[in-house]
Amino acid sequence: MTAGGRPLVLVGAGGLAREVLAVVRRHGPYEAVGVLDDDPAARGGELGGVPVLGGLPALAALPDAAVLACVGHGRVRAGLVTRLAAAGVGPDRWATVVHPSVEVPDGCTVGAGSVLLAGVVLTADVRVGRHVVLMPHVTLTHDDEVRDAATLAAGATLGGGVRVGPRAYLGMRSAVRERVRVGAGATLGMGAVLLTDLPDGETWAGVPARPLHRAVDGHVHGARDPGTRDERAVRA
């Protein structure tokens, strides 16, 4: 177990924060000193042995600590980053956590505030933006770009030259064909195979992935093609 390092405050008392804690406790380079969460019920408790200090105002007592937004949903994470910046968190305070199993080759870049968990693969000239979350065993191949606050769930794979827009979400074991674009705020369902561009803000699922519509009963179903069955969208 690694001890010491720059103090680190995690924002969001959920599963992602616990996964980050597991990495930094064993490998550093940070030492988690507190968790912030707006939920009054969490205040005064612990997350993995680290105290929950309260909401964002509690950060004022830790002016030298690095900060990491640990909220899984990209849109919420982006909003949280905006709130933290307004509260005075400057660019030099964002922590970046990269599991030691992850190689970042020359020509690849990882933005501040991002989390890359075990088994993530970056090949050549991959650009990962700020506050991105790459869950275990995500594969990014040559010339891929993942924009700010996007989330790629475990096992997601991108062909070469893919563009993933800000705040997009790619479900577990989804795959994207080379040179395809995933729009800003778009969602690709678990296990989906994306062969064509996914427009901003839309949700697609299936093999091959297709746009979804909301049925009268309130359930989300796949668009029907002649001779095929509807497919239910599933988010990881």
Question: Would you write up a description of this structure?
Answer:
The protein is mainly beta. Helix content is 11%, strand content 28%. It contains two helices and 24 strands. The strands form four sheets. A nine-stranded mixed β-sheet has the order 6-8-11-14-17-20-22-23-24, covered by helices on one side. The protein has a five-stranded mixed β-sheet with strand order 3-4-2-1-5. Strand 23 and strand 24 form a beta hairpin. The longest helix has 13 residues, at 15-27.
- The end-to-end span amounts to 30 Å
Largest sheet: 9 strands, mixed
Regarding quaternary structure, how should these chains be classified?
single chain
Largest sheet: spatial strand order = 6-8-11-14-17-20-22-23-24
Q: Segments where pLDDT lies below 50 for 5+ residues?
A: 215-221, 223-236
- Number of helices, counting only DSSP H or I runs of 4 residues or more: 2
The gyration radius over C-alpha positions equals 19 Å
Work out the number of β strands: 24
Order of helices and strands: EHEEEEHEEEEEEEEEEEEEEEEEEE
Choose one word for the global shape: globular
Helix content: 10-25%
Overall pLDDT, averaged? 89
Give the class from helix and strand content and strand pairing: mainly beta
Taken as a percent bin, the fraction of beta residues is 25-35%
